[in-house]
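Reply to dn_fold:

You asked what the input looked like. This is it:
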Amino acid sequence: MSQEASSRAGGASSARHRLRGKIGAGMVCCLALGTLPCGIALALPGERVSAVVASAQRKPFTIAKLISEISGMAMYNATTPYAGANVLYHIEDTANHLSFQELVRYDAPNFVFVHRSDGRVRKTIALVYDDAVAQDYLNARVVATIGVYRNTPKSTFFRGARFAYRAFGDKLTLFALKYLAAQIESARRCATMECGD
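and this is what came back:
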């Protein structure tokens, strides 16, 4: 994610829009989460970004559309309050209009996605997607931990059965497994220089 997009996504986390419904492609969310609303998965990595807009039209979602000043492509932010903080879902359009990677952020104090024993990790991911994606992350294998230039948190990369993940502080990026090696290589290049991430 670009520095610009990360900044916009972080700013949008102050919005308090309620997002509800089933995840894309008609999959019903797991109800084992008790009082949590159903997952709001707007699109999964590899799906068409237009699924974001389509989901918003079918369900009572509120999505903020932004235009990147760098790429000129559309970016979409959606937020929902959860346990006194905000969960942010961020997706950027691409040249082929397929979702390459997606960002989930939970801005609660003392929360980091790499601490998978924290029950809020599973609940936050399930809130955005569903319990199956949350479980995929919890079961995923750590494949690399790489320092980030001039940042205290490190990037931790995971290989799940369905997706690959990058945990960095209160942010979690999801992307297709086929991009994992390239993402790790990019992170290693950027460990000693500013890359805008």
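The chain has five helices and eight strands.
Hope that clears it up.
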